[in-house]
Amino acid sequence: MNKQSHKQIRPNYFTFTITFALVLAATLSFCKAGYVAINHDERMKARLTAENYAARLSQEVKEAISLSEHLEFVVKIKHGQQLQIKQIGPELIRQLPFASSVQFVPNSVVTQICPLKGNEKGLVDLWHDKDRGPVVRYGAKHDVVTIQGPFELFQGGTGMAVRNPVFLKQGGKRKLWGFTIVIVNTDQLFKKSRTSMSKNGYDYRLTKQLTPLTKKYSVIAKSKGKLSKPVKITFTSDDKQDKWQLEVAPKAGWTAGKKVFWILSFVIVIEALFFMLIWNFFKIKALQLEATIDPLTKVYNRTGFEAALKSWIKKHPDQPFTLLMIDVDDFKFFNDYYGHQVGDEVLTRIGNMLARSQNSGLLACRYGGDEFCAAILGKSAQAAEATIKQIHDSGHGFKSRGKKISYSLSIGYADYPLLAMSMTDLLAKADEALYAVKMDHKDGVKCYGQGQHHDIRSQIGFTVHDLIMSTPTPLIVFEAKKGGNTLFVNQSCMRLLGYQNIWQFFNVIRSNPFAFILEADLPWVVEWLRLYIEDGRKNETRELRLRLITAEGQRAKVKAQARMTDSLKYGQVMYVSFEDWQQA
């Protein structure tokens, strides 16, 4: 081997070594990132599981509270007199196995317990009791249900006391009658949730604040397995006076470390593993981002918006809100004339403007393209008019490369529940109102009203509406392509075809520009149109004679003059006028 050959080999070896080292270092680095990602996913899954079970446990607590409220109802029905717990208690306990006992406590003294046997020590003056008195007085003072415990039950197992203060009107004043109490067997109350967590492969520990007056927690229930770095969720009951904590962890332990170890064992696929991990890393990040936020405007995307709005409706079922559909007027012009960078700047500025309003009861999202959707929460359409006007009138201008760029917005809106009872219907009506603005010269706002129709949206952009609608020459405009829609029809054309108004016209033809052509003439008319389009010569008027079918089913012979041209909004469109017609 000569020196020249040796010089050629050495750099290759050096490059290979450096490349291998870099790939190995990158693999180790991404394995660490992989560990973090896997561990994050595991803990996120565990957290979602914990949140789910916390909701279930909270609902089970509500069942116990509901039983105490049922007893309160009985007291109020009988005005606190002639109460016999032994008449209703056995049936309640039979139907609700978690109830260890139920009690009536007039004047804060336990006088009736069902069952009494084994619970005789419970016949005490709660108000002056050393351990229970402070909690009882707290519940009475704040008129809240208190839950005290855990403690051991006489019958065995762990229990807690649900105490519901009862107030009756006496002499026109609201006065404390006493309490209704449910002694709950927590083993029975939480049996379904505990069994489900165990079957789904999770160890758990459920703890509860002993009383609303202390920060100490005590274990209500726990699995046999040892918890390792558990996920902890804190939740409360309806009155938010008692606090609970649920800790969960997989029975098999966290598996992130084991997975990364096996990944490192397969060094032979280091390079493939590198690309796989980086792909998964960015995919997870992208999915998390796309889940709720629009990357350009930084407001909600459609998915995030719908989830946020549904959550608000669930929390405020009786409150109205107004839904806005917002569209940038002539947005395609900005992209075509100024470039997409300016178009993106327009969208970003609108997103920033809407985002600034989100702290004042407004949810906003980029619905798609140049359309935004917003909900003004807690306000009807009438009450929201000032906010809508502010959004419409806010400064819509900026400078780009020394040029002043101005844009305008069209806004259609409808409110819930006055105009719609479902999100689908509400969106459709706000959308209809938006398109009504578009037909009326754009740059305006409009609330949904009766009589609007979605099939006339295609007339947007014909700002010389009054002139064309009033011309005596029948005129129709449609997209010059297969399956193209009817874009415009004037009053003279509707009269020619025997339709009373535009609503009747579109209801019949359904935007099909060939729906009123005699069936026998339809094939050659379609072929004539195809040849015209293929010929490609625009702005040239051509004539043809054909027969039409009127609304009454009669035939009309007409001479048509057709001209194909380009539209900024719709591409190639066909303008067709009719003349010299007569009834066949």
Structure description:
Keywords: Membrane, Transmembrane, Transmembrane helix. This is Diguanylate cyclase. With 584 residues, this protein is α+β, with helices and mostly antiparallel strands. It has 3 domains: 29-292, Beta-Lactamase, CATH 3.30.450; 302-452, 2-Layer Sandwich (Alpha-Beta Plaits), CATH 3.30.70; 465-583, Beta-Lactamase (2-Layer Sandwich). It is 41% helix and 27% strand. The chain contains 16 helices and 21 strands. It has helices at residues 3-77, 85-95, 133-142, 186-189, 191-199, 256-265, 270-292, 302-315, 331-338, 340-356, 385-393, 423-439, 465-470, 491-497, 502-509, 522-535, and strands at 99-106, 112-114, 146-152, 158-170, 173-185, 202-209, 217-222, 231-236, 243-250, 321-328, 362-368, 371-377, 397-400, 403-406, 409-416, 445-447, 475-479, 486-489, 542-549, 555-567, 571-583. Helix 9 crosses helix 10. The protein starts with a helix and ends with a strand.
Q: What structural keywords apply?
A:
5-stranded antiparallel sheet, disordered N terminus, Beta-Lactamase, Diguanylate cyclase, PAS, alpha+beta, 584 residues, elongated, Alpha-Beta Plaits, 41% helix, 5-stranded mixed sheet, GGDEF_dom
Query: Numbering strands along the chain, what is their spatial order in the largest sheet?
Result: 2-1-5-4-3
SSE-based structural type: alpha+beta
- Strand runs, count: 21
CATH C-level class of the largest domain is Alpha Beta
Largest sheet: 5 strands, antiparallel
Mean pLDDT: 83
Strand content: 25-35%
**Secondary structure: helix percent:** 40-55%
Domain CHASE: 124-198
Domain GGDEF: 319-450
Transmembrane segments: 12-38, 260-282
InterPro entries: CHASE_dom (IPR006189), Diguanylate_Cyclase (IPR050469), GGDEF_dom (IPR000160), Nucleotide_cyclase (IPR029787), PAS (IPR000014), PAS-like_dom_sf (IPR035965), Rev_trsase/Diguanyl_cyclase (IPR043128)
